[in-house]
Amino acid sequence: MSPIEILFVEDSIDDATLTIRALKKSGLSNTLIHVKDGVEALDFIYRKGAYASRNADEMPKLILLDLKMPKVSGIEVLEKIKSHPLYKSIPVVILTSSKQDPDIKRCYELGANSYIVKPVDSDNFFQTIKELGMYWMILNQPPF
Amino acid sequence: MDKESLSFQTIFESENKSEINQKIFYTIFHKSPVMNSITDAITGKFIDVNENFIKFCGFSKEETIGKSSLELNLILHPEHRAEIIQSIKEKGYSNDVLMEIRNRKGEIKWVSTSAHAININGRDCFITAMVDVSERKKAEEQLLEANKKLEIVNVELEAKVDERTKKIIENERRFRNTLDNMLEGAQLIGFDWRYIYVNKALEKQGKYSKEELIGYTMMEKYPGIEATEVFKSIQQCFNQRVAIQMETEFTFPDKTVGCFELKIQPVPEGVFILSVDITERKKAEKEIKQLNDSLEQKINERTNQLASVNKELEAFTYTVSHDLRAPLRAINGYAKILQEDYISALDADGQSSLTAILNNSKKMGELIDDLLAFSRLGKLSSTPSEINMTGLVKTVIEEEMVGITNDVLFVVQNQDLIPAKGEQTLIKQVWVNLISNAIKYSKYKPKAIIEIGSYYKDNQVTYYVKDNGSGFDMQYYNKLFGVFQRLHSQDEFEGTGIGLAIVQKIIHRHNGRIWAESVLNEGSCFYFSLPTINS
Questions:
Q1: What H or E segment, with its residue span, contains residue B85?
Q2: CB atoms within 10 A of CB B60
Q3: What is the rounded average pLDDT of the residues A127-144?
Q4: Which residue from A minimizes the CA distance to B364?
């Protein structure tokens, strides 16, 4: 199994399907792992539950994080990531439904690196995802 | 005897006595300043008269001798003459009878007449002496007259004094009446704190009748008054003799409370107090204050309610933006998958249906975005600052012309636009919407001309954007600035119908005005006003 390059946190199956498809078309989906909520995301990061046996050395190069999720919200996940000694240096791109989301400001305060508004128009969305994924994956060299 | 008397004595003794007597008599009779006459006692005819008599009566001696006074018409009132004769008959003489004599010229004079019976050579005669007392009499009469006048003046004066007194009494009565019946309470308090006078209003205010108050002290009537503000003020007025004005609350012996406006004035008797009962007024003021307080409280409650409603609305729009967009995104996304990967499996009808789904979901997304942008306008607030309109409009034109392929000429009047005061980001949105509209609605013109200008009017700056585009029918003007109101079909001109509603909301937030003029197929002109930089 190739190393995980993108950790994708998204509770909406539809949004996940469309996003994964966009990334796939850009050739970025092979090394992607999709977790379906904040709890699962934290399990992955802290190697608990289903991910207890995960290889600790496997570090994603990019985290795509949806904000609005049940149980543990994106903000809480972000907080945990940014307080983790190793994970805090991984770039986090926030996925949000609206640019008027009051949480965006909070996300930047917590150390998010960028955000994408999920547009209704899928053309735009695909384009943005592709560009963003490429940018962070290819141009932005992670610090390790 | 003195020397002169002695010399007369000598003369008498030395000469013939009878001769001397005759000489003396003659001299005395004729040369005397007194008017002398001798008349026959029986006939009353003159026997002899002296020079003064002649002079006085105006008749010659010849005319007089042998005539009586009645014949000469000398006597004005014969009864005076009769009185003299009567006196002589009784006593042998008459002294100082005042009578009036008419002389030859008809002048009437007062004389004092004395007469004596005398026997001359066996003939009974009267010897009469008259003294002219006219001047004296005149003086007397004048005195009398003066006295009379004085009397009249006196009477008049007395009448006047009476009248004045009456008036004074009347005035006092009237004053007393006014004082008694006026609306203000009036009381006169002596230095011993006793009531000297109270009027009717005070009886009502003080809750005691006149009879219950007069003669009693304030302390007797209102026990505990010594501790009040009023008492201290009256005392101050007693001592310092200064007028004091005050508003006070007074508790009566029956525990009721009244509010009074008092004017305490020093008077010789002590103090005079005018009082107005302002209990009702105070009560009304209190009620108004309470009403105001409760109103304010209500306003606060309402404001809070409004704030919470606003919050709810915010939460609602947020929810709308998230929850409505998610399924829409899915519809659009899956339709896109069909279009990209499975288009060959659909016939022409299916393909156009798929396109319709894509277009509609995209459109709905735009509607939601616009609605959110519109609701967000109420929240934004930064401090207004001076805006360089020329620069701002230049930027907007450049941005809006990106991707525009038709021929558009922008004309900015006088090169420069007047600066104004406002929130830059919002005002930019206004220009964006108006300029993009002007471009959009001119797209079918072979040569679009868009004119932009500004001018001062009514202490504001008015800006306008004028195009020669399709224009609109003025009969639908009332719908122009409404949310999601459109005057053109989607096929003609794309748009959600929120742009002008946003523009209007922004301009109203700046206390400006927005309006438009248009002729269908000839073009429109949109105007808006903003505060000047000095306001």
A1: helix B78-91
A2: 11
A3: 63
A4: A120
Q: Judge: A98–B325 Cβ closer than 8 Å, yes or no.
A: yes
Counting one residue from chain A and one from chain B, the pairs whose CB atoms sit within 8 A come to 64
Left if phi > 0, otherwise alpha if psi is -120 to 50, otherwise beta: which for A71? left
Whether B365 sits inside 8 A of A120 (CB atoms) is: yes
Burial class of B117 by CB neighbour count within 10 A (0 to 12, 13 to 18, 19+): middle
The answer to whether the CB atoms of B321 and A97 lie below 8 A apart is yes
Write the Ramachandran bin of B151: left for phi over 0, alpha for psi from -120 to 50, otherwise beta.
alpha
Task: For residue B95, give the amino acid letter.
Answer: N
CA angle B57, B63, B66 (to 5 degrees): 105
For chain B, the distance separating the N- and C-terminal CA atoms, rounded to the nearest angstrom, is 132
Tell me the pLDDT tens digit for each residue of B385-420: 899 999 999 999 998 888 888 888 888 887 789 999
Kindly report the average pLDDT of chain B as a whole number.
87
Q: How confident is the model at residue B198 (pLDDT cuts 50, 70, 90)?
A: very high
**Contact list, A12 vs chain B (CB under 8 Å):** 326, 330
Residue carrying the six token digits 């308090």: B189
Contact A122 B333 (CB under 8 A): yes
Q: Are B38 and B120 in contact (CB under 8 A)?
A: yes
Give the gap in angstroms from C-alpha A96 to the nearest C-alpha of chain B: 8
Distance (Å, rounded) from C-alpha B258 to C-alpha A132?
Answer: 82
Whether the CB of B326 is below 8 Å from some CB of chain A: the reply is: yes
| Pairing relationship of beta strands B35-40 and B460-467 according to DSSP bridges | unpaired
Report pLDDT for B316: 77
Q: Tell me the three state secondary structure of residue B422.
A: strand
Nearest C-alpha neighbor of B425 from the set B367, B385, B477, B481: B385
CB B515 within 8 Å of CB B457 = no
Assess contact for B412 and B439: CB atoms under 8 A. Answer: no
Alpha-carbon distance B355 to nearest alpha carbon in chain A (angstroms):
13
Both tokens of residue B451?
């004119």
* B57 and chain A in contact, CB less than 8 A: no
List the single residue in B332, B334, B337 with the smallest CB-CB distance to A120.
Answer: B332
CB contact under 8 A, A14 and B333: yes
Residue B9 pLDDT: 53
pLDDT of residue B239: 93
Cβ distance B333 to A97 less than 8 Å, yes or no, reads no
pLDDT of residue B193: 94
B438's tokens:
């002007």
B514 exposure class (CB count in 10 Å sphere: 0-12, 13-18, 19+) = buried
Cβ distance A120 to B368 less than 8 Å, yes or no, reads: yes
